[in-house]
Amino acid sequence: MQLSERIMGITGGGSDGWDVFLKARRMIAQGVAVTELTIGEHDIRTAAPVLQEMHRTALAGHTGYAAVPGTDALRDRVAARVHARTGVETHRENVLITPGGQAALFAAHTAVCDPGDMALYIDPYYATYPGTLRGAGAVPQAIGARAENAFQPRVEDIAPHAGKAQSLLINTPNNPTGVVYGRDTLQGIADLCIAEDMWLISDEVYDTQVWEGTHLSPRALPGMAGRTLVVGSMSKSHAMTGSRCGWIIGPEEAIAHLTNLATHTTYGVPGFIQDAACFALAQGDAFEEEVAAPFRRRRALAQQILAGQDVVGLVPAQGAMYLMLDMRATGMTGEAFANDLLDAHHIAVMPGESFGGCAPGHIRVAMTVADDVFAKALQTVLDHAVARCTARAAAQ
User: Fold this and answer.
1) Residue 36 φ/ψ, nearest 5 degrees
2) Could you tell me which residue ranges the Aminotransferase class I/classII large domain spans (predicted)?
3) Both 109 and 23 in a single domain?
4) Are 247 and 95 in contact (CB under 8 A)?
């Protein structure tokens, strides 16, 4: 029997970018001790009070079908949070609760793209982006953000494609680069979306992890509230990755139709998960800062370790739980360096090539292990890079 072209074509016929990660997991399964600096999984787990609330409400009986767009309590809580953070008036009718940010990305593109529509996204990108767009029936088109521009996207690079596209997907703070898009960048993108009548889908799951600068939601810019869908999640801000609780913020009409989509696909998020999310959000900014604090510390450690040398370049780490490191001085691709590092030192990182075509010779390091383990691993990365540079110079 023949499967659909859509399902068989999700990865575009090539690697999905997870090869080094999967190799590391195979090594671990074989009993090899590997330091994993690959995926955005907190080393702290979901806080005990949040789990206790989840347990309490489940035992209290909130285990049946929950309201598909989300419980009123959680939608109100998310709306209030968004209003407070962005200044944009937001009500429960602007909120759809989804099974995590990934489901929100898929639903958002399904809402604004018909089959065959072009959907733009910025390269480097989170590894699932192009497959998500293909799964939604859109035709993905990457727009490069270059290392020489500190990975800030440029309107002049987007503009030639905008007139043919239905949507543009951006992510700030950015995974994988750690870059926070500046106001000028976002205003230029907003102006282009308005001029070309294009939807903007803004992935803001790292909005609580900002180390330099300020996070600006493009929905807050003039004329953008009616053409922006914002993706949010409890995963990164509250260390609730496995709970799969996210949301889409958008115009009421879009959320109403997205609720219809959820009715026919996911049928909502379990009520006890939503109750726990509501409880977690009620803990306020101090709780979110506590979850983010380890990454702020490890960024400072990385800056100390990498200071005073010119072999490994640190892309400005302004936000998120990752570092993008420039390894081009070694003469190796990011993929070659990542595999070499894994084989030699049992340290797993993600190659820049896993995130598109604009970060060759880079690696992404997740700051997701204890401070001492992280510092030791990063020093090993630096030492390995220096050794490869020395060997390269000797061979020339």
Assistant:
1) -95, 115
2) 36-379
3) no
4) yes
Domain with 203, as residue range(s), is: 62-283
- Tell me the β-bridge partners of 319: 210
Three-state helix/strand/coil letters over the chain: CCCCHHHHCCCCCCCCCCHHHHHHHHHHHCCCCCEECCCCCCCCCCCHHHHHHHHHHHHCCCCCCCCCCCCHHHHHHHHHHHHHHHCCCCCHHHEEEECHHHHHHHHHHHHHCCCCCEEEEEECCCCCHHHHHHHCCCEEEEEECCHHHCCCCCHHHHHHHHCCEEEEEEECCCCCCCCCCCHHHHHHHHHHHHHCCCEEEEECCCCCCECCCCCCCHHHCCCCCCCEEEEEEHHHHCCCHHHCCEEEECCHHHHHHHHHHHHCCCCCCCHHHHHHHHHHHHCHHHHHHHHHHHHHHHHHHHHHHHCCCCCCEECCCCECCEEEEECHHHCCCHHHHHHHHHHHHCEECEEHHHHCCCCCCEEEEECCCCHHHHHHHHHHHHHHHHHHHHHHHHHC
- Residue 16: is its pLDDT beyond 70? no
User: Residue 384: CB partners within 8 Å, gap ≥ 6?
Assistant: 340, 341, 344, 345
Domain tally, the chain = 2
Overall average pLDDT of the 200-212 stretch:
98
Burial class of residue 43, CB neighbours in 10 A (0-12, 13-18, 19+): middle
Average pLDDT of the residues in 175-193: 97
- pTM to 2 decimal places: 0.95
CA pair distance 283, 50, nearest whole angstrom: 10
Residue 140 sits in the same domain as residue 216:
yes
Quick check: is 390 in a domain?
A: no
- 129 domain residue, yes or no: yes
- Cβ(243)–Cβ(276) below 8 Å: yes
Q: pLDDT value at position 292?
A: 98
Q: Is residue 391 part of a domain?
A: no
- Would residue 51 count as lying in a domain? no
pLDDT score at 391:
87
In the structure, what pLDDT confidence band is assigned to residue 393 with cuts at 50, 70 and 90? confident
How far apart are the C-alpha atoms of 263 and 265, rounded to whole Å?
A: 6
Q: For residue range 40-89, what is the model confidence (pLDDT) as tens digits?
A: 999 999 999 999 999 999 999 999 999 999 999 999 999 999 999 999 99
